[in-house]
Design goal:
This protein has 486 residues and is of the alpha+beta class. A hairpin with a 6-residue loop joins β8 and β9 (254-255). Helices cover 38% and strands 17% of the residues. The strands form five sheets. A six-stranded mixed β-sheet has the order 3-2-1-4-12-13. A five-stranded antiparallel β-sheet has the order 6-5-17-16-15. The protein has helices at 2-36, 41-47, 81-88, 99-103, 105-108, 116-125, 140-150, 186-197, 221-231, 272-278, 281-291, 293-302, 327-333, 344-355, 391-407, 468-484, and strands at residues 55-57, 60-67, 74-78, 133-136, 155-160, 167-173, 239-241, 246-247, 254-255, 269-271, 360-361, 366-370, 376-378, 384-386, 421-427, 436-445, 448-456.
Length: 486
């Protein structure tokens, strides 16, 4: 009898241990995975118990949660949704979250470490739980100006305060309305998401910081000029060869300046200042070979190439090739071709560093985080990425870029009474493909600085007929004017 009882006891103990082990495994090891599973409606509904915090511009909500009387309790509402979509992203019941809605989810949902005592206080006082508010750095006038200037063209615009890294405008087109993904009708949201996902123009891409990156073309000449000046191999007035065409080293391919078959200026010789102002390809290809790909890569990376930035949304790294290049390939990178790719964020950062005397600040779109009572939890996070160039080099580049706007290849960026520094680019994408059109530059007025970058895909709707000066430069000027209030 005792033997049978002992056997039953062992069996019960084994069953208990198995149950204990499986429940422990589920609660400890599988819990995060189960909580993140989109099919876990209990977790999803629990996330809507808290009134999600608003996203603010100058204290005014551009995103907020409103009571909707459903099982979800709150509906996310986006004011001017399409205008601010690259910044806010969306928060969806079945398609996840993007933009600030994802990057600042802990704060907006009230679950960040810095909100522990606020949440504890709400529990004891019986007040309704609520997430923190996120105040962004966006200048609404600049955002609207960028939106209006971009019009129906496919591309992106970004503006940065060079002194702080604060992002003042960020527009990407085509875009979408986040409200269509925030509804609580699952099938309606899925249909809207699939329509956006299958749209060949990729409206879900934030082209300002990510997406399919474009070759920067001639705006990359700023980086090459910076490398050449820092290396001491050339000054703005140093004489350079000035042929009408140049055969790439070790290749039968021939390159030309933008005006096919023309010299860089009228003389037998040219110089760096003229080459940058007129955006000549041959001098920069030759300079690139003299520098070598390693020095160009070092300079590009000191500006942020081959690195990603959390603004706090994560950017796609701009690219300068990390493989060893031959001289022909290096020559092509000298004017932003071959395998060089860039985001508008990256090119705006190059201009911002020059404007800021050589120091590059980390970019951010978050100004502060506030409790539901609008007490500050986190203030502006200003930090330096590094100092890629000296003040002397920054001054030389500024002078050459101002010459490009006043009398060179970027004249459509000119603003009466303002010294605008700028550089245009018209980048090739392949045989018969439309160009990518660029402008980047900066200006200052009454102590306010701004650096901008513009990219237009599909040649701005003009295929291979559009130019950076013809289309992109005027967009950059419109945004600069809006920021400076001129």
């Amino acid at each position: 009898m005792s033997k049978n009882i002992r056997a039953i006891g062992i069996l019960l103990l084994a069953m208990f241990l198995a149950l204990f082990g499986s429940s422990t495994y589920i609660q400890v090891f599988q819990a995060p995975q189960l909580a993140a599973d989109g099919r876990n409606t209990r977790v999803l509904l629990a996330s809507y118990e808290t009134q999600r915090g608003p996203i603010l511009i100058d204290g005014t909500p551009i995103v907020q949660s409103e009571a909707d009387g459903t099982q979800y309790k709150y509906q996310r509402v986006y004011e001017n949704g399409a205008l601010y979509a690259p910044i806010t992203g969306y928060y969806s019941a079945n398609q996840g979250a993007t933009g600030l809605e994802s990057a600042m989810n802990a704060e907006l949902s009230g679950r960040s470490d810095s909100q522990f005592f606020t949440s504890l206080q709400a529990m004891f006082t019986g007040s309704s739980p609520a997430g923190a508010a996120v105040e962004v750095t966006i200048d609404p006038d600049a955002q609207q100006a960028a939106w209006d200037a971009l019009g129906d063209m496919q591309g992106a615009v970004i503006a940065i305060d060079p002194e702080t890294g604060a992002i003042l405008a960020m527009v990407s087109k085509p875009t979408y309305d986040p409200n269509s993904l925030a509804m609580h009708d699952d099938q309606e949201v899925i249909d809207a998401y699939n329509e956006l996902l299958n749209d060949p123009s990729n409206p879900l891409f934030n082209r300002a910081i990510a997406g399919n990156l474009n070759p920067p073309g001639s705006v990359f000449k700023i980086v090459v000029a910076a490398a050449a000046l820092e290396a001491g191999i050339v000054e703005p007035d140093t004489e350079l060869d000035n042929p009408t065409e140049w055969e790439l080293p070790g290749s039968s391919s021939v390159i030309y300046n933008p005006s096919h078959g023309a010299k860089c200026g009228s003389g037998e010789k040219t110089n760096l200042k003229t080459a940058l102002e007129l955006s000549c390809n041959i001098p920069f290809a030759q300079l690139a070979v003299e520098l070598g790909d390693e020095k160009i890569r070092e300079m590009a990376e000191s500006f942020g190439f081959n690195d990603s930035f959390e603004i706090p949304m994560e950017s796609t790294p701009s690219q300068y090739p990390t493989d060893d290049l031959d001289d022909a390939q290096t020559a092509l990178t000298g004017f932003g071709q071959f395998n060089v790719r860039a985001t508008p964020l990256q090119m705006a950062m190059v201009s911002a560093a020059i404007s800021n005397g050589g120091e590059l600040m980390n970019p951010t779109v978050v100004d502060s985080v506030l409790t539901p009572n609008l007490d500050e939890i986190q203030g502006p996070q200003v930090s330096s990425y590094g100092t890629p160039i000296s003040q002397e080099t920054a001054d030389k580049l500024t002078d050459m870029m101002q010459g490009s706007v006043s009398e060179g290849a970027a004249t459509n960026a000119a603003i009466a009474g303002i010294d605008v520094a700028g550089k245009t680019g018209t980048a090739q994408n392949g045989e018969g493909e439309a160009y990518s059109l660029w402008f980047t530059g900066f200006a200052e007025s009454n102590g306010q600085q701004v650096a901008v970058a513009v990219v237009l895909e599909d040649g701005g709707g003009m295929g291979q007929s559009g130019t950076g000066n013809g289309l992109a430069a005027s967009i950059g000027a419109a945004v600069i004017k809006a920021v400076l209030g001129v």
